[in-house]
Design a protein that fits this description.
The structure is a homodimer of 682-residue chains. Chain A contains 14 helices and 28 strands. Chain A has 682 residues and is an alpha/beta fold. The longest helix of chain A has 21 residues.
């Protein structure tokens, strides 16, 4: 009787996969955003640590490699993956240049390692291994067949010794020498290549670690003393004189609201008055007049040459100029005349203005991204970035990106970065969380956050844990702002100077990138247009301001100190090492940031209450902070005050006065001199 | 000055996507296994509830539909998705037939709903809406252009009324009538179709809800009284007489270990003795002799006709016969002779036996899935399933699937189910968690679990939460076993009868599918081969056994009761509604199972300690259990004892004696007659 009936063999079956001998499974790869739909982000020099579940049927040993390359290159580099527990493997590579990179994994069943492992067990059990040694010799001969001549000879020699070996114990010891050779010529004919290639966008370091200063150039007139009347309109030339002031505070990005010609139709007055008075300057976000649009400079600020000179001067002070890109037009914008098809018309023939019913914004007309010539519109808008890149700008703060199609940004950012991989796009979207994250996934380099309104201990810990300890950290780089020209929070209005300092310290130490809108911030400007409003009174959005930079109480010095601390401490230059620690006071937030090697550990405790002094016991995970011996005291060095304290054990006490210094920013010193260092005196 | 410089337009840019006007984003779809790589599982009649993040730029209203179809059909059916909060949408469809289904999503910007919403705001703000009404009329005319004649006329009529309308308030009210019509002819030209089609494998109901009984047919000889000597070899004919006994306990799957001819080479003796005595029967998993292999019946059990008759008789008792498929061979298997290339040879020319070094299993030879003729091997092994399906079997328990390639199973199960979508594959893999889950993802209908060894409250709650309240529940259907022929746990050995009852109740109420190996289980067989072993003494794996089914203390009656409770209570027929509840005693586990509509709610409290009586306070989430008014008393009806209790509020007391009934299995009765029902007496 035969079991292999022709009847059963004859039945037509579905097609088997191309290579059914690929026994290794690779799944659960991390990081991998939305099934590989989006790349992760890194800056130059950072590591990409990849984990995956890798296993095969049965009990054979496996080998696994992480493959990586620059997208433009064709050949993969390889990095060895190591098995952790529970079939989880980990490997890493470092990205050395800006641009797009790719990574994937490959794994294969490794008969040599399997044989080595099993032989050791057989020898230990004192079994006869004569046949097993011949199996090992076969494996070496197979490796020799894949190796170049010199190595093949070595392998064949070993195969002969193995087949003839009398003492398997000696063999086992000596075989270690041949492992590396066999591995180099492993049989990967049936290796499993992971089914997806995953992307990495590698940005310049400033994409991760940056301190932004926003100012309105038109308020910067360079005059010596504030006149009583209307200040003159600022110029780029005058702004040059402000550069040392900004640089001295330690910022590295100087961000300017739109610098383009401003429309006249439906111009807004001071404090957003719908009726402008003669001489009112309107919002610079009402872009475009007969003097030009998104590629022109507002004549009162100077010429394009003046702007390029200003960018160069800023660079000499270590400041990169960031421009605001707001894709909307005044009704006077040349686009309206030249491309009427890019805008919606109402049935009465008028152009459709911006609105959020029932509110109307008649000084602004939005682009119609659903128009027939959407391709032409996209091309033109992308050319705006290229234009300014050609003037020396590489950082852009994009206004309200969430009101333009997501597909548009995904294409635009990829397109611009294909030629200028060093370009940085900051997404100004204070909208719902899913669209904010989508904008980051599709390409924005940095993103505004809800930090501005997160003031309680629970909110801050929960939100920054979401940003830094979940998958979000792979694609979303927070840039946190205590204030903006649009947002003077009630917390700042009511909290006064202590609140300003607290929010500054939180922003600068919670996130690797932060920014302030100045001089309003450092001068402690806190009067709203009206009670319940987050708008500034006499907002620079609608009028020129003259700022007295020497006003008593300016925070310029503490800002400079904080930015110096950030530059001196690598732990503060990344978001990856952030951990929150328990305290027994709901007004005291405690967290640490550490480099992966724990060489730099910064511990922060902030009093969140702008009104009262608070004390708290902190509960510290000493081992995670690099304190190897919890029985030994360790030193904490307050980088704000210079004070040093000796602490001992996980529970430690702090007391913080909001009217003095409302926070400790400690650098942990792991190794202290102890009495044992003086042993030689004995 | 023109801003649209020809220079900028002239720069060659990357290609824009095909339709940049697709403004809707669809992401975060759930369920979606590994980026759509694997299908989810459902049984006939179940709902597929799908959620996704759906949003667009700006503030326009959206429409979203869930699309679904049988894989073989080309046209989609549609189900409306509803917005929840935070851009999350939800929809559902019901699967009505076995086989493969597909689903995906489509979303589009909905200008009509946007216009309706904004118009209401404008009217409320008493704005002039004359132009807005004309915009609405344009939208209706556009819908008319997409509609068939009769509906087009209706829409055009509405458009004319709207354009001429004087009182917008009335219009708003009346427009509700036209919404459905506009929606039916919505403009989907720029709709976003989700980028993946996701799969559903729909199985027969028994794939989810089943009670398995495993027995060795060779121990079933039909003789009236147990003889003192060696029992005669059982037969399928004799097994027929056992059917009423198994059916009376309420099982619906009768699972037989391998029924094929057994090899003679290296035959094992009783209690796994490496040297068999004459007359020893060996393990039925040593498949194949000169009498045939995987498609033959062991002659002592009867003929293939006897087997088919047995399957038919079982069906008359409501029992489906499940066969064991173990892809391994005795050295005497016809495959070894006919397909020597399907097996590995050692350098000494001998065939490679199974081993787990240093252990050797010389009565078994494994297939070499890496052989050159792997396609031929796969074809033949798949034909084994087809062969038995042709004999009337549709349920298979697959032995050690994790020692054969994953790609093999994925292909085989899809191949068999393409012709026989009703086939059920139970994965017998007690291996590492990742391979177990992979086997489920790639196609196994049900899976063995770690339940067998999970005995503490924490372990059980943690494990069943993982199985039923995470993504695992979409692809992994647990089938939980208190014992198997390979596993007599120490917990049963030491716990005795109380442990047997506890484990039965846990298995039958925690999981929709469970099984026992009998008669060893219901007869309370608990002697291991030796201390520290999980093997049965005198295991049926190696010898015939005669079981006294009338042995005092048999659990047959309580098993019958438990299976009746499972059949009467739909909540116990699914794993989706499982929730654990706090108790103040670590030996008392409390959980509930509920149907989605809360029409059937079963509350279980089990004493996990086989030795001592335990009392506990249970903390119940009354609203989740359908108790609408926590101020009113509710009734719990113990389905094991028939007792009824009136409870009041979330905290309730239980006391459970392992030597009596070690658990409550309550049905909750929500609505009780109260004094208010007697109002008419007043």
């Amino acid at each position: 009787m035969t079991t292999t009936g022709s009847k059963a063999r004859g039945r037509k079956r579905t097609k088997a996969p191309e290579d059914g001998r690929r026994r290794v499974v690779i799944e659960g790869v991390a990081p991998e955003i939305d099934g590989g739909r989006f790349p992760i982000k890194r800056v130059v020099g950072e590591a990409v640590v990849v984990e995956a579940d890798v296993f095969a049927d049965g009990h054979d040993a496996l080998s696994c490699r992480l493959l990586y390359r620059r997208e433009a290159e064709s050949g993969w580099s390889e990095s060895r993956m190591e098995a952790l527990v529970n079939d989880r493997w980990r490997g890493a590579f470092r990205v050395s240049e800006v641009g797009r990179w790719r990574y994937t994994l490959v794994g294969w069943v490794d008969p040599w390692t399997t044989w080595r492992r099993d032989l050791a067990k057989r020898v230990a059990a004192r079994q006869d291994v004569a046949v097993d040694l011949r199996i090992g010799a076969e494996l070496l001969r197979a490796a020799a067949a894949r190796a170049p001549e010199e190595e093949a000879e070595l392998l064949t020699g070993w195969a002969e010794r193995l087949a003839a070996e009398a003492d398997p114990g000696i063999t086992l010891l000596e075989l270690a020498a041949v492992d590396e050779l066999v591995e180099r010529h492993a049989d990967r004919a049936h290796a499993t290549l992971y089914e997806r290639e995953l992307g990495v966008v590698v940005d310049p370091e400033r994409a991760l670690f940056s301190a932004w200063y926003e100012m309105f150039p038109r308020s910067c007139d360079g005059a010596d003393a504030p006149p009583d009347g209307e200040p003159p309109h600022g110029t780029f030339r005058a702004c040059e004189e402000r550069l040392p002031y900004v640089a001295a505070m330690g910022f590295d990005v100087l961000y300017l609201p739109p610098i383009h010609p401003i429309g006249r139709t439906h111009r807004k007055g001071r404090n957003n008055d719908p009726r402008a008075e003669p001489g009112d300057v309107d919002s610079p976000w009402a872009i475009g007049s007969e003097e030009g649009g998104h590629k022109a400079v507002h004549p009162q600020l100077g010429t394009l040459d003046d702007f390029r000179r200003f960018v160069a001067r800023a660079g000499e002070h270590g400041l990169e100029v960031a421009l605001d890109v707001a894709f909307q037009c005044s009704p006077d914008h040349p686009y309206v005349r030249e491309h009427p098809d890019w805008f919606k018309r109402r049935p009465d023939g008028t152009i459709q203005y911006a609105e959020n019913p029932p509110k109307k914004y008649e000084d602004i007309v939005p682009f119609d991204f659903e128009c027939a010539d959407w391709r032409g519109l996209w091309q033109e808008l992308a050319s705006v970035f290229t234009f300014w890149i050609e003037q020396g700008v590489r950082i852009f703060r994009v206004d309200n990106p969430h009101t333009k199609p997501f597909a548009f940004w995904e294409w635009l950012i990829a397109d611009v970065k294909a030629a200028h991989p060093e370009a940085v796009f900051l997404s100004e979207a204070f909208t719902r969380p899913k669209p904010m994250y989508r904008l980051a996934k599709l390409g924005f380099t940095q993103s505004y956050t809800y930090f501005t309104w997160r003031t309680s201990k629970w909110e801050l810990a929960q939100y920054f844990t979401e940003l830094t300890a979940t998958e979000v950290r792979e694609f979303f780089r927070p840039n946190v702002w205590p204030n903006t020209p649009d947002i003077l929070t009630e917390h700042l209005q009511l909290g006064g100077r202590p609140a300003f300092v607290q929010r500054l310290l939180l922003a600068a130490t919670l996130a690797a990138s932060y920014g302030i809108y100045g001089p309003a911030f450092e001068l402690g400007e806190l009067v709203p247009r009206e009670r319940g409003s987050e708008e500034y009174l006499h907002s620079e959005k609608y009028q020129l301001r003259r700022w007295d930079l020497d006003r008593p109480g300016s925070l310029a010095e503490i800002i400079a100190l904080v930015n110096r601390i950030r530059r001196d401490n690598p732990a503060l230059q990344s978001n990856a090492g952030l951990r929150f620690h328990p305290t027994d006071n709901d007004q005291v937030l405690c967290y640490s940031k550490a480099t992966p090697d724990l060489a730099n550990v910064v511990l922060v405790a902030v009093n969140l209450d702008p009104h009262s002094t608070h004390a708290a016991w902190l509960e510290l995970p000493l081992a995670e902070l690099g304190i190897e011996d919890p029985a030994q005291p360790f030193q904490v060095h307050d980088l704000l005050t210079g004070a040093r304290y000796q602490w001992h054990g996980p529970r430690n006490f702090v007391q913080l006065d909001p009217h003095g210094v409302p926070a400790h920013v400690f650098r942990l010193r792991h190794r202290l001199r102890s009495e044992r260092d003086f042993d030689y005196f004995l």
